[in-house]
Specification:
Blueprint (H helix, E strand, L loop, with lengths): L3 E8 L5 E8 L15 E7 L2 E6 L7 H7 L11 E7 L2 E9 L8 E6 L2
Antiparallel strand pairs: 1-6, 2-5, 2-7, 3-4, 3-6
Length: about 110
């Protein structure tokens, strides 16, 4: 669709890297951002096409946020999060609104040590 946010990135290493990828919409309200994307869907693509997607984050990954210094997401929010291990290559993280909705969203990418 025409209302999509695409963030491209490369994993340039000799081996796989563990990454946290977030599509933050509703949790931005706590920072005074208005017009946020109420329900972002995050899709990860590589050279072979779509690899994985997430619509609503799982609270079990919250401990990882603190480990890497990422701000906490609002409990029960519809933000989207992927915790993946990727081999070297080029990727895109694509964010869209569930049901074709639009709004402000933030894409974040963190390497997990």
């Amino acid at each position: 669709g025409s209302n999509i946010l695409i963030a491209g990135f490369s994993v340039a290493s000799t081996g796989p890297k563990k990454l946290l990828i977030r599509a933050v919409g509703p949790s931005l309200d706590a920072f005074g951002v208005s017009g946020t994307l109420a329900d972002p869907k995050l899709e990860l693509y590589g050279s072979a096409g779509k690899l994985v997607e997430n619509d609503n984050w799982d609270p079990s990954v919250a401990a990882t946020f603190a480990q890497i210094g990422a701000f906490a997401l609002t409990a029960g929010s519809r933000d989207a999060v992927l915790l993946v291990t990727l081999p070297p290559g080029n990727y895109t993280a694509q964010v869209s609104g569930v049901g074709g909705t639009t709004g402000v969203a933030l894409v974040e990418l963190y390497e997990i040590p």
